[in-house]
Amino acid sequence: MDDANLYTLWIQTGEESLAGTDSNVFIQLFGTDGQTESIYLPPQDIFAFESGQTDKFILEAPELGDLTQCCIGHDSTEDSGWYVVDVRIQQNSSGREWLFAFNQWLGYEEAGKLAACAQI
Prior knowledge:
Blueprint: E1 6-13, E2 25-31, E3 34-35, E4 39-41, E5 54-60, E6 67-74, E7 82-91, E8 97-106, H1 108-111, E9 115-119
């Protein structure tokens, strides 16, 4: 893997009651030089995306330039309500970092939607 194309992501789930999800989570990144497809984020263990937790992922993606937008969502398969606080992304080679604040529920019952986008 080319280090220039590696991004580390930290996804923070809120501390609200039942804020976590066991559904399949997906993310899409947009930058000044391109965008990714929707990327599935496989859980690291059974405790992924639980209330008050921050989950870390390493993604290989094309050079995106400066990130401008992040979209995150889930497929509502299990424990669908999910409160996403924020997503922090770092490009490994340059150390550049972006913070996308969501501070919202994702789920049909909680918010009427399964995905959201945040911009810088």
